[in-house]
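Lab notes, practical 5.
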Amino acid sequence: MSSDPMCDVLAVSSARAAFSGGFSAGGPWAIRLRGPDRLKVNAVMRGSCLLEREDGELLRLNAGDVVVSDGAKPYVLCSEPGLEPLGSGEVPLDPETRMGQIGTGGEVVCLAGHVDLSGDRSGLLRSTLPELIHVRGEADAARALRWLTEQLLEEMTRGRAGAEFASDHLAQLIFVQMLRICLTETDPQHLPASWLRALADEQLAPALRLMHDDPDHPWQLEELARAVAMSRTSFTVRFRQTVGVPPLTYLLNWRMNLAARALRQDTTPVAALARSVGYTSESAFSNAFKRVMGVAPRRYRETARAK
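Output from the prediction step:
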């Protein structure tokens, strides 16, 4: 693991982004989108449309805009409000380009994708993001995002060798760029309490990196507070307000997430795994793991391997 908490969380949560296709649309049109256990991603490549949320709120999307929904609630992309939307499965896709056609003409071109969160058992990613992220195409921070989505559209429609492989990697980069924009351009107060909000806090971020860089170290509040030049009390209060849990609770949860990943992916003995996340006693580690994950380590490994 690196001392980059974002890389760490992406690895532990096994998040995988993919663009399943897209559509062109013209005339009156509407399509309903939802992604249970997924973040839903839409990029408007040409034209403009409306995004209508369940509560009736409307959001204008223009060429270059990208939105990410947490997948909890459906939303509608449309030419105008009040139209009966198609379900996403009702739009046939060209097997070669994976693009569909809605209505008549092609005034609007939109790419559609998702980030699979089925491996994010502890909600490390889902809990960090607001219900809807909207990155405007004209924003300076969106330049790299615009280039990535343009390259993705080319890969999807030009039929070049290696297109599927390239598309998968571009999708991952698009998601990382969206997280970076959340980190650098979003008011931290608009982010849910989480590790991402702490990473956006210049004073707390070094403490977060220390815990990620050396999770087996016996960190104490005084040591972490000293590293960020804060008193123990001020550090504890600010960390809890920003992350949602006290510092040592976050460290415990992170250690257990690291252990859970290892239990799923390799055959490291539980005693050795306990030492790797800071426990000298296998029984103490097992008790902590069961308290956080709801099941003993060996049982967790057996269940994960059986899937």
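Observations recorded by the TA: Residues 4 and 264 are 22 Å apart (CA to CA). Residues 201-306 form a domain with the Arc Repressor Mutant, subunit A fold (CATH 1.10.10.60).
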